[in-house]
Design a protein that fits this description.
With 512 residues, the protein is α/β, with parallel strands linked by helices. Helices cover 34% and strands 24% of the residues. The protein has three domains: 2-188, Rossmann fold (3-Layer(aba) Sandwich), CATH 3.40.50; 197-385, HUPs (Rossmann fold, 3-Layer(aba) Sandwich), CATH 3.40.50; 405-499, GMP Synthetase, Chain A, domain 3 (2-Layer Sandwich). The structure holds xanthosine-5'-monophosphate. Xanthosine-5'-monophosphate (XMP) binds at residues 295, 330, 343, 345-347, 389, 391-393, 433, 467, 504, 508-510.
Length: 512
């Protein structure tokens, strides 16, 4: 395996993901535990991540010395490069210019990291994000690439197989980055590249068995892909120790409860408790306008329901959820790190502290498209695996302003028409996620010979690969016109339809 030492970068998981894409197994350890992990089982290679700290301060994290002594290849990225330089005899100082965003590197020499990708004399786009910079490299190293603000943009000690890059090869904005990581994992570290999602599935099953032992587990099903994949995975891992609970929160889309119940009971033969808690949720949500409050209420109501269901089956020690990596990174704020809470994804930041079940989250390291691959691996039907994501807090976060039952019903009907038209136009699979939002604003219109004064419905559709960044979908105007007139004609309460053309960032995909 390749060991990734995490210095707290927002994108450390992307390194792991790129390594997985090369068919190589990797493990991430926080820098504090890296020494122990190296001692326990020496990896075939080490990658040092970026991080928010400054190597110029004595108190900040360092790489475990052992990483450089084992004789295995090391790829040190950004903060990792600076730490490696500082630890092996080079020097780092704070730069006058922060280099942030797109930059270009000039390749000075060929090296194994660039093999077949970049050649001496070429110039290539990369993504930089650093304040400090290396000003002297340790003995044995050579400069293999430079940039305007980083004379040591890439360095190598080919004899010891130590490589450092100031830029981030793991992000999409370094277009050749994945291939550089591939070179490191396969050519330099010599990994075979045979690791697959099937292997992940076996490891995940083994980990779940180890974590839960003989205890009972409750799995909350939302009807989305993530929780369904978790349910099927757990069913395979622990059979009838698992109870799946599908909670009708009253903020689901039209037809959703029926679909989920029939899929699990009839198709997969997984026992399912169908709990209609619509009134409980809506009573608590009614009149609430603040998005974070909505998320917290939904999170804690879910737990109340799960705890009641756990009692009914004589107690469950664990709650399984389909938490994905982007949910984790956007909800968690690392101490001293650059990552701040964007929104409390209900299954991470939205959970109440008083909860007395431990969490089982086998997808916590994965990105959405990887979960889909895992779903296919587990035999979930393609049209189910390729469903658009649907957030746990459901329609409640697509209804800006105070929640009420009437507006919720209007939204549900508009959403159904919008998705129906998307399917009819054959666009469903080209879009990452599409949904309607009902604004708490009424505008004047004229319908027939009457004045109308009704709500505005906004339509959202985005493309994305992992939900971390997204762009609006460029529908043609005829399509938008068709959806607009159907919604206005068929849904009482809406007299105006608008289309959201915001990307993420600066927007998020959901409106709340
Ligand atoms: P945002 O709105 O943060 O959404 O750009 C990124 C993706 O995550 C989904 N999302 C959630 N999923 N619980 C979930 O299970 C949540 O609380 C939650 N909030 C957002 C969103 O639909 C999009 O696919």
């Amino acid at each position: 395996r390749i060991l990734i030492v995490d210095f707290g970068s927002q994108v450390t998981q992307l390194i792991a993901r790129r390594v997985r894409e090369c068919g190589v197994y990797s493990e991430i350890v926080p820098f504090q535990n890296a020494e122990a992990a190296l001692r326990e089982a020496p990896p075939v290679a080490v990658i040092l991540s970026g991080g928010p700290a400054s190597v110029t301060l004595d108190t900040t994290p360092r790489a475990p010395a052992m990483a450089f002594e084992l004789g295995v290849p090391v790829l040190a990225i950004c903060y990792g490069e600076q730490a490696m330089c500082a630890q092996l005899g080079g020097r780092v100082e704070a730069a006058d210019h922060r280099e942030f965003g797109r930059a270009f590197v000039d390749i000075q020499r060929d090296c194994a990291l660039f093999d077949g990708v970049w050649q001496a004399g070429e110039r290539h786009q990369v993504w930089m994000s650093h304040g400090d910079r290396v000003i002297a490299i340790p003995d044995g190293f050579e400069v293999v690439a430079t940039s305007d603000n980083a004379p040591f943009a890439a360095i190598a000690d080919e004899r010891r197989r130590l490589y450092g890059v100031q830029f981030h090869p793991e992000v999409m904005h370094t277009p050749d980055g994945a291939r550089l990581i591939g070179n490191f994992a396969r050519r330099i570290a010599g990994c075979e590249g045979e690791w697959t999602m099937a292997a992940f599935r076996d490891e995940a099953i083994a980990r779940v068995r180890e974590q839960v032992g003989k205890e009972r587990v409750i799995c909350g099903l939302s009807g989305g892909v993530d929780s369904s994949v978790v349910a099927v995975l757990l069913h395979e891992a622990i059979g009838d120790q698992l109870t799946c609970v599908f909670v009708d929160t009253g903020v689901l889309r039209a037809g959703e409860p029926e679909q989920v119940v029939s899929l699990f009971r009839d198709h997969y033969n997984i026992p399912l408790v169908h709990r209609d808690a619509a009134d409980l949720f809506i009573d608590r949500l009614e009149g609430v306008a603040d998005p974070e409050k909505k998320r917290k209420i939904i999170g804690s109501t879910f737990i109340d329901v799960f705890e009641e269901e756990a009692k009914k089956i004589g107690g469950a020690r664990f709650l399984a959820q389909g938490t994905l990596y982007p949910d984790v990174i956007e909800s968690v704020s690392f101490t001293g790190g650059p990552s701040v809470t964007i929104k409390s994804h209900h299954n991470v930041g939205g959970l109440p502290e008083r909860m007395n079940m431990a969490l089982v989250e086998p997808l916590r390291e994965l990105f959405k498209d990887e979960v889909r691959e895992l779903g296919r691996e587990l035999g979930l039907a393609a049209d189910f695996v390729d469903r658009h994501p649907f957030p746990g807090p459901g329609l409640a976060i697509r209804l800006p302003g105070a929640i009420d039952r009437e507006r919720l019903e209007i939204l549900r009907r508009a959403d159904l028409i919008y998705l129906d038209e998307i399917r009819k136009a054959g666009l469903y699979d080209a879009i990452w996620q599409a949904f309607a939002v009902l604004l708490p604003v009424r505008t004047v219109g004229v319908m027939g010979d009457e004045r109308s004064y009704e709500y505005v419905c906004a339509l959202r559709a985005v493309t994305s690969t992992d939900g971390m960044t997204a762009d609006y979908y460029p529908f043609d105007h005829a399509f938008l016109g068709r959806v607009s007139s159907r919604i206005i004609n068929e849904v009482r309460g809406v007299n105006r339809v608008v289309y959201d053309v915001t990307s993420k960032p600066p927007g998020t995909i959901e409106w709340e």
